[in-house]
Amino acid sequence: MGVNTRTEPVPGHQISVEVQRRLEVDGVLPAKVMRPTDAEDAARGLRLCDLTPAAVVVWGGGTQMRLGTPPRRYDVALSTERMTQVLEYEPADLTCRLQAGITVAELQRTLGEQGQRLPLDPPHPKRATVGGMIAANTSGLSRSRYGTVRDWVIGVAVAYPSGKVARAGGKVVKNVAGYDLMKLHIGALGTLGVVAEVNLKVQAQPQASATVLGHFEASSPAIEAGVKLSRQYLAPAAAIVLDRNALWACGLTADWSWTLALKLEGYAREVDAARDLAARSIREAGGRVEGQDIPSSFWDAARDWSVPDEPDAVLRAMVPLAAMPVLANAMPREGQAMVQPAAGVAEIRLPPALAGSALRRLRAAVGENSQVIVASAPPDAKTSLDVWGPPPPGFAIMRALKDALDPHGILNPGRFVGGI
Amino acid sequence: MGQGRLGTAMETGARDGLLRRLREVVGEQYAFADPYEIRLYQYDASPETALPDIVVIPGSAPEVADVVRLCAQAGAPITARSGASSLAGGTVPVHGGVVITFPRMDRILEIDVDNLRAVVEPGVVNLALSHALKPYGYYYVPDPSSQGACTIGGNVATNAGGPHTLIYGVTVNHVTGLEVALPSGDLVQVGSQKAAETTGYDLTGLLVGSEGTMAIVTKIWVRIQPLPPVQKTLMAVYPDVESASNAVSAIVRTGILPAAIEMMDKLSIQAIEAASHAGYPLDAGAVLLLEVDAIPELAEELGQRMAQVCRENGATEVRIAKNDAERQALWKGRKGAFSAMGRLSPDFYVMDGVVPRTKLPETLAKIDAISVRTGYKICNVFHAGDGNLHPLVLFDAFKAGQYEAVLTIGDEILKLCADAGGSVTGEHGIGLEKRENIRYIFSDDDLEVMQRVRQVFDPHGLMNPGKLFPTDGLEPSPSVSAPSPARRQPMPAGQGEDLWV
């Protein structure tokens, strides 16, 4: 049974046309909204939707709403905007428990008061919620050093269409009791349940940090220098390679063809040593080390770059480290490019009209083990783009998991991989 | 379960038919049901035992897939067993059926430094991988204490940890892809493998730690990382576990995150000193071992800073290892802790509870109170940095009623860990041992979702049945018979250093 067999009126609150437009997803508008206050409340709402059945799109801050294929159907917007509490935080345990609707910036502010942080930096943290960060698996630019969302989520409470709230994991940093269902919800785009509460590991803020910039005539040596550094003990916290357009978009108006920007973090002596290593690596790769001070907003702009306000399309390639140079050669000349050499990720921002051919070229260039997706595109462009590419290995299991946890297919129908 | 017995469950005719078909897959000598031979596969490192009907030793992933398919067709339970070092009975075939074991699948298939990956078969011994990586300047981080015996396949099943996972995470944080055999007989590869990320649900993350209840792992992609240039180790001596616990919290609050923080209490210290002369003061109430990874120019500074925090928090003595020999000496006692317990008692029962690290002092006090009330000695040797306790309850299995009493004590300790906001297992897994204790932390609703996920992989409940989930009183609990005294293996002093947890 699918959501097309609806017999009951759509549950939830009536909304104005203005709110409807704000909650639009790929051009589709919802009829109603639900704003639950906690996990149980969310589960009750989902139960009503399941009985109807009515299709639900979960809303956090909406920063990643352009990710995914357009919804097959969309009746109810379930917003986490009223679930913003910090439920528990014990700095000495380096853990916290939150409602999923809290923004990443608010979380970082709370942790910052205790000299701690979550070392993930998803784009637009003032709007992005922790729940959205989990659903879209947005880890930010420091993933090669600190890992991704999956490495920091230690527990969840999830509301399911059955009307039940089920927990997995727990509050402690080391725990192997039961299945690790946290992993299932990370990057699932809310297709298996609504993550309502989250338990996180956190860490102390680094003692010191620094930025090293190098510029290059071509992309390959810049990328290769970044890849090499990532294999070292003193690997940078973040390494990005930007073309001139991306550099300018990040607020640095130097006339450099390609720039390798390295964010170094750690104990002060480590950062000193890492700075020397980085400078040496840049020179050995034929680049020039730039001594100039960079605007403090540079890393924030770089973090937000992949979620532009403009109606650009963003393509994201995820490849093995050794395939980074091959990828560099296949990158389009148009638009802007930001490569994360240490993470095996490259993102291209370009006008939507050019996205189709660039996507095909990149998919043809990357080899085994690699994926290229459309991370963001305006609705009209999506109709002609294969957003997710071929279903990943194990897709039959994914489909079966979806059917097991959301049997009527009410959660974000049609937006995920393979039409899930 | 045949005649209310555990283990061996198949009718002779059905068993012989399956055995014949399995031999066609793996070869005559690698599938057997001889009563004498299969006895070797009835146990692991837990006290529980149960006989399988058949043991199979496949030589390749396609063979594993065929074996799993044939077993599923025959309705025979399938239990994967590798190093068999499970302390939770994870590999004991309580429902009989077929045990699949992996000594022939112990190859490191690829060391790919360029992509920071290694690809291994499930039977590769954990330490063997790090040894193989060492010449390249890399290692595989998770170091469960049985790392000289346990395998990567088993580590994946239990999401194994170890003392050095404090800063770098446990097995799941280092596994990027899996090849698994499903009950359907399909071999499926999942995960990003050599790439940073992939699309779709994170099946790799789900399968790690699923204790063989969903699929059998046939190939593993792991992340490797550069060896730390220097490891600085120090020992701090405290009058009691409370002051040592407070020192741990104080160090964490300074922003230093050591790679390992281990603690031993008074009773453990006495046993360790008697066995291995590690140099821990006999009158100490608690000893902390701290280790930090660093570049050489930083190691000394961090060592001194940690030493200062230790002193400020009541350490009566702090000793910093000046070289690798001194470092090894400090670790020697900790690594020999479990075998040293033989100095105090013929048997011990090891627990694996976790509490938030700030709850360590009160939890240890409560465990002490249980010891006083029941008269059973309890040693505490544990990963203090992440609150992962390993209370060792000392007993004598020859004395009637002691084993049963110890199980009750274990249950009480796990309950108080759960009540403190912790978990009933930090790294050993639920297995057979704690399948009822899982209710201390998960509700019926939580478990129901987990069951639904399991059924996606294993609709007929053939994959390692009787593990991880509560039995709801539907079958006899195996935890009522004392271990056979024949299994007791006294450990001479100085040996058994792999047997630490």
CATH class of the largest domain in chain A: Alpha Beta
Parts with pLDDT < 50 across at least 5 consecutive residues of chain B: 1-5, 473-501
**Strand arrangement across the biggest beta sheet of chain A:** 15-12-14-13-17-18-16-19
Spans of chain A of 5+ residues with little confidence (pLDDT < 50)? none
Structural class of chain A: alpha+beta
Number of helices of chain B: 15
Q: Roughly what percent helix of chain A? A: 25-40%
- Biggest sheet character of chain A: 8 strands, antiparallel
CATH topology of the largest domain in chain A: Uridine Diphospho-n-acetylenolpyruvylglucosamine Reductase, domain 3
Return the average pLDDT of chain A rounded to an integer: 94
The CATH class of the domain at 229-428 and 490-501 in chain B turns out to be Alpha Beta
Number of strands of chain B: 18
Radius of gyration of chain A: 22 Å
CATH superfamily of the domain at 229-428 and 490-501 in chain B: FAD-linked oxidases, C-terminal domain
Query: Overall pLDDT of chain B, averaged?
Result: 90
Number of strands of chain A: 19
| Widest beta sheet: strand line-up of chain B | 15-12-14-13-17-18-16
Task: Walk me through the structure.
The complex is a heterodimer of chains A (420) and B (501). Chain A is of the alpha+beta class and 420 residues long. Chain A is built from 14 helices and 19 strands. Chain A folds into 4 domains: 96 residues, Uridine Diphospho-n-acetylenolpyruvylglucosamine Reductase, domain 2 (2-Layer Sandwich); 119 residues, Uridine Diphospho-n-acetylenolpyruvylglucosamine Reductase, domain 3, CATH 3.30.465; 95 residues, Alpha-Beta Plaits, CATH 3.30.70; 77 residues, Alpha-Beta Plaits (2-Layer Sandwich), CATH 3.30.70. In chain A, strands 15-12-14-13-17-18-16-19 form an 8-stranded antiparallel β-sheet. In chain A, strands 5-6-10-8-9 form a 5-stranded antiparallel β-sheet. In chain A, a hairpin with a 4-residue loop joins strand 17 and strand 18. Chain A starts with 12 loop residues before the first strand and ends in a 15-residue tail after the last helix. Chain B has 501 residues and is an alpha+beta fold. Chain B has 15 helices and 18 strands. In chain B, the strands form 4 sheets. Chain B has a 7-stranded antiparallel β-sheet, sandwiched between helices. A 5-stranded antiparallel β-sheet of chain B has the order 5-6-10-8-9. In chain B, strands 1-2-4-3 form a 4-stranded mixed β-sheet, covered by helices on one side. In chain B, helix 8 crosses helix 10 and helix 13 runs antiparallel to helix 14. The longest helix of chain B is centred in the last third of the chain and has 18 residues. Chain B is globular, with a radius of gyration of 23 Å. The two termini of chain B are 33 Å apart. The N terminus and C terminus of chain B are likely disordered. The chains are: A alpha+beta (420), B alpha+beta (501).
